[in-house]
Amino acid sequence: MKPRVLIVDGHSMIFQWPDLTLQHAKRTTVARESLVRMLTGLQDNSDWHVTVVFDGNGIEPTEATVPHGVQVFYSTADQTADSVIERLAAKYSDRYEVTVATDDLMERTTVASFGACAMSARQLREEIEMAGRNLD
Fold this sequence. Notes:
The protein is α/β, with parallel strands linked by helices. The chain is built from six helices and six strands. It has helices spanning 10-14, 18-26, 28-44, 81-92, 105-113, 121-133, and strands spanning 4-9, 48-58, 62-65, 71-76, 97-101, 117-119.
């Protein structure tokens, strides 16, 4: 069985989950950190290796990762998070069971062409909640 990799479209999740949307309206950083915390709980309590990608505004793509933590990527100003997600899905779909969490229909179709699966924001939230219940 291939290792499972979950690639999350960060802003797609933030704007689909009302609690994170409210946080984002006040401070983008707080919403991003909340999402990463939720995804860390999922990774710690499941067999997923989680990567989250956010639209950035820097000159170079950046990765902020704590050892054994969720990988966090920021796109550059001249690219989108979608292009980073597509590149990751294409690169890893042959070696890993890749799933992309996004509500962007075009993105879901594109990653499927690389052999990745897709899940919605609602499905991801259910995965996170189920991983939390497994702790009890």
